[in-house]
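Collaborator request, handled under Task 6.
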Amino acid sequence: MISEPELVGEDGPGSSRDVVSGFDPEQGAAGGGRRRSGAVWAVAGALVASAVWASAVFGYGIGRDGKPDPRGYRVESDSCTAMRLPALTKVLGEQVSEPATELDGIEHPALHRIRCTVAFQTRDTPVGENGTRWSVEFGVSLTAELHKETDPRPEFEASSTLTEIDGSVVERVERVPDLGDQAYLLTLEAGVLRLNVVEGGAVVRLALTGWTFTEDDSDDENGPPDDMAEPDLLAYRAELINDMREVMKALKAG
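Structure tokens returned to the collaborator:
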């Protein structure tokens, strides 16, 4: 089951009427008949349109030309250097190497995108009764996109509330307050904890993956021992959020 996202700051029913409160059509009939009433509603309509445009500009970062506000983000081929991850490194151990850039990056007038991955040092577990040693490994991937022509928010909201991603069931969706314009934390059945953030025209995703493995192929097919639990990724929720803040700052500074 997917938990309901925590909706923060949503407008309640009737919010559009509140924008034009104070305009009473009955007052128009007394002073100027239909002509005044029509003028009042014309003004009211203009105010509504103005409010909608202002909401788009200030709430969604969309300008008069319909393009999203970059909010200072820079997403280029060298932006993987933003993936320092100090909080996760402190709890998971040192990174094995510098962040690796994936090959499906995009540099297009309408969209810039990078993908980066990093692995942490492998943790060995105690040797089991049959002499097989299982290990635990963690990895983090970063996807950063800068949309320059269209507002990424509708697609972002849709992709952040899916029930399945790449064949893996989404077990939990949680709204994260005070992070970008909107942020969702997704827990996937396949051992993935993913944080999605949108801010203006930028969409940033940081995913933590944990898995167990052994070099013995025969034991690998049978799976780990019953008393060996899979990594509890939710235990690193705070570190993932803190590192996302650092990544977002670095992408702006870059």
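The cover message to the collaborator said: "The radius of gyration is 25 Å. The chain has two domains: 15-60, 79-253. Please let us know whether this matches your experimental observations."
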